[in-house]
Amino acid sequence: QLFARSLGDAAPRVLPGTDGGRSPFFSPDGRWIGFLTPGKVKKIAADGAALQVLVDIGDGRGATWGPDDFVYYAPTNIASIWRVPSGGGKAEEVTKVDREAGEFSHLYPRLTPDGATLLFTVRTGPGNDERRLVAQVEEEFTARGLDLLLRLGQIVDLNAEMVRANEALGVRQV
Known about the structure:
It contains 1 helix and 15 strands; from the N terminus they run E-E-E-E-E-E-E-E-E-E-E-E-E-E-E-H. By secondary structure, it is mainly β. The strands form 4 sheets. A 5-stranded antiparallel sheet has the order 11-12-13-14-15. A 4-stranded antiparallel sheet has the order 3-4-5-6, with no helix packed on it.
């Protein structure tokens, strides 16, 4: 269940219809709250009115609302990232899990405020150290741009690490 509290109120209020709600996220204008429930991505107006199911999913793993008025989500713990219009409608796959490269799933999407970069976790196994954070940059998120590694809570830019390592070794890129 989700709760909301205005800054001037002493107690929070239950948002009706949010039973089982988790992983809340806001629309860019702050008027809507999106959230996951077992089997669905939903949204509700911040004042508690106008509950709507956006799409059916499995046991979702994160969602975010983009400035392009799409909601990006991971429908299960073994899937890629998908998106659906914020008013509901046909969902479409945004990323592709590369099983040949050892990828298990794409999870917990986040968009930069300008919507130009999609960040998500790539799982390569069941352990906590078997995942990496990836950024997809370019139109329609069709190509991976920047590989990032989440190491004990710290984000490390792998491209920058490679440049520093090459410079330390005296290797020059041509």
